[in-house]
Specification:
- This protein has helices at 17-25, 48-57, 75-85, 104-114, 176-182, 202-212, 236-248, 250-255, 263-285, 293-318; strands spanning 2-10, 35-41, 65-69, 88-95, 98-99, 118-129, 155-156, 173-175, 216-229.
- The chain contains ten helices and nine strands.
- The protein is globular.
- With 319 residues, it is of the alpha/beta class.
- Helices cover 40% and strands 19% of the residues.
- It folds into two domains: 2-234, Spore Coat Polysaccharide Biosynthesis Protein SpsA, Chain A (Alpha-Beta Complex); 238-318.
- Strands 1, 2, 3, 4, 5, 6, 7, 8 and 9 form a nine-stranded mixed beta sheet that branches.
């Protein structure tokens, strides 16, 4: 096996891919690291494949570019394919709109070597806004994989804390052994599919499986990437869909922390808490929900979360 694989999941990313590959071509301090680049084309219809072929022909670096086509649409399928094809013991995932600094590969590899119980870890994710974020956007920035926490030292996430934070999938590094031991092939949450965001949460589902298998999940502020946020992803229509999709994933990600027999008992508690948030949000913002994009998006997340539990509860009692 190699030391490290950079896995890129891409869908119609012809305008982003060249800059990402140039950033990977410029990695420093990798002389003692054997690594590769694995690109999974998730059924693109643009010139993605041609651009990759052109780079392969002109790629003289010691770390090769491998191209794979995955016709099954969905982020989870693309990541499964990337993990299957990757030969590195550590696999770092980048999306086509992520830009790693010159030390990203080296920093990610060194951290994995020094933390052998880390099944997955991520670092800071800085936004490159291509438009003006709405008012109070920081409240929901993490939903767009923006992580600018103030911690200066690495820490291990507390997986026993229900509803606790976990890092997003952009820039995540996963130990291949931890994935192969614990992550099922068919995740319930598939990730974005053909523009739909109703199956978001595949990253969290994956990390919960790894954590439930006894591996640690870490945050490493010594690693960081930059994330391009297009204007369309800062607009109300997209943010409403995104946060509603996150809400609809909540039942699945919450229940993975409980044995099956406990789940019917805790669902009403989660529903009550979600309903409380809906009421508080309505009382706090009132008619402002029509104009406040962030507040409206948060409301959709709470409603989606409430719906996700209600649908499961109905299925359990009236199936």
């Amino acid at each position: 096996m190699l030391n490290f694989s950079v896995a890129i999941r891409i869908y119609n990313g012809e305008k982003y891919l060249p800059l990402l590959l140039e950033k990977l071509r410029s990695q420093l301090n990798t002389e003692n690291i054997s690594w590769e680049i694995v690109i999974v084309d998730n059924n693109s219809t643009d010139n993605t494949a041609r651009i990759i072929q052109e780079y392969q022909l002109d790629w003289s670096e010691l770390y090769p570019i491998h191209y794979f086509f995955e016709p099954q649409q969905g982020a989870s399928y693309a990541r499964q394919r990337a993990m299957k094809e990757a030969k590195g013991s550590l696999v770092g995932f980048l999306d086509d709109d992520n830009l790693p600094p010159p030390d990203w590969v080296a920093s990610a590899y060194v951290f994995g070597q020094s933390h052998p119980q880390a099944g997955a870890y991520n670092g800071l994710i800085h936004a490159i806004y291509q438009g003006e974020p709405p008012k109070n956007f920081k409240k929901i920035a993490s939903c767009l994989a923006i992580i600018e926490w103030k911690e200066t030292e690495p820490f291990c996430f507390n997986l026993q804390k229900k509803g606790g934070l976990l890092p997003p999938g952009a820039g995540i590094v996963i130990r291949k052994e931890a994935w192969e031991e614990n992550v099922p092939f068919n995740l319930e949450l598939k990730g974005p599919v053909s523009g739909s965001l109703n199956a978001k949460g595949e990253d969290i589902e994956t990390l919960l499986y790894i954590g439930n298998g006894g591996w640690e999940i870490w945050f490493n502020p010594g690693m960081h990437i930059y994330h391009k946020i297009s204007q369309s992803r800062l607009e109300k229509e997209y943010l409403i869909k995104l946060l509603r999709g996150i809400g609809l994933s909540r039942h699945r990600t919450r229940m993975l922390g409980y044995p099956p027999w406990q789940r019917p008992l805790v669902i009403p508690l989660y529903m009550a808490n979600d309903l409380r948030k809906v009421i508080i949000n309505r009382l706090k913002y009132g008619k402002e929900l029509e104009t406040d994009i962030v507040a409206a998006s948060q409301m959709e997340m709470y409603l989606g979360s409430l719906e996700s539990h209600w649908q499961e509860l109905k299925y359990f009692f009236w199936k």
